[in-house]
Amino acid sequence: MTPSLTVLIVSFVALLILGLPVAWSMIAAILAWTLFTDNFYALPVIAERVFQGMDSFVLMAVPLFILAGELVNAGRITERLVSFANALFGWMRGGLAQVNVGASILFAGITGVALGDIAALGRIFIPAMVQQGYSAAYAAAVTASSSIIGPMVPPSLIAVIYGSMTDLSIGALMAATLVPGLLIGAAQMLLIAVQARRQNFPTVEMDRSPRAMTRVTGQAILPLMLPVIILAGMLGGLMTPTEAGAVAALYAALISLVLYRAIRVRDLWPVFGRSALFSGQLLIIVGCGAAFSWVMGMENVPRLIGGQIEGMGLGYVGTMLIFNAVLLVLGMVIDPTTVIILFGPLLSAAAMHAGIDPLHFGVIAILNLNVGLLTPPLGVCLFAAERLAGCGLIPLLRETAPFLLVSLITLAIVAAFPGLSLWLPTLMGF
User: pTM value?
Assistant: First the structure.
């Protein structure tokens, strides 16, 4: 590592530890690098890179998908999805835990954000599971673990950001993450089935007559059409990601305002305010991250990483293990969006240099970073679920460990067999 690169990395990490926001830590580190290298000519270029990082038609999809998610939450559509998941999965032993995972899969197809899943579903499932005799820690563990499915099942906000940062087709990336996301959900449901037999978890009693099932399905069909419209439009070449985001926001507004009348026009202002605030915070990080990545490129970091790994002669399996380890560690200590903005282009270029398909690597990166949401010291999904359950972090970690293990096993399977993530994009013609 060169002295100038050391200054860049050390100053960035030190400022983060001191509590400076991510975007300003990146800019301050870039300024420290500029002073150290006397590359003052680069300052106008850095300012331009910040602007160019945000000035992307594809990134316009980000605030639109965020708005769609906020409208869905405000429109109280969650209850309809929970009832539908109950009809599908509640008959099994450990039914309410199974419904929790199933609802996360359905909810993921609408918001695609892990914390959104916990905020919407945790308030419903954690008290209900405790009332049925599950421990608060187990209820929180199921809720936190199933929430990582959200960023894998389209429409995925993190896939939009990864695709825009690495110049990958966002439609292809969303298609590639779908099967691994469903595999994570299936693995967690299988684990619950095993635990349910051992601990004699209860089933969920409800009317499952044809008439009742038809009614529940009818109530859920309109919200469930949202991901179908988005995927059909993007994968069929009818809409760009940005246009899909606009359609998603308009559709969510129509069903919440007009059809269900769950919100009123005057209730839209807080929804727009939250969406604008979150979008602004995210896009500032994206812009500063683009400048930081440019400086890292000036220091030849992608070639450095790729050359180091290639020089080890580890082959495909060994190389993939190294990348998985790096991504898992990064996901444990840094927010996934920040990792993608900072290191996505660098690691993707290094993976291509090592002979790994860039689309497959994108799936592995997103999956690894989602798993990081369940591991301390960051573990934002753990902390969010613990706050709702009030069960204590240590009991929650103990109950989460089996779910973390099956998620890691699924990750290893997806990493070892690229066809699991690549067959659907290939089928769709990407």
Answer: 0.76
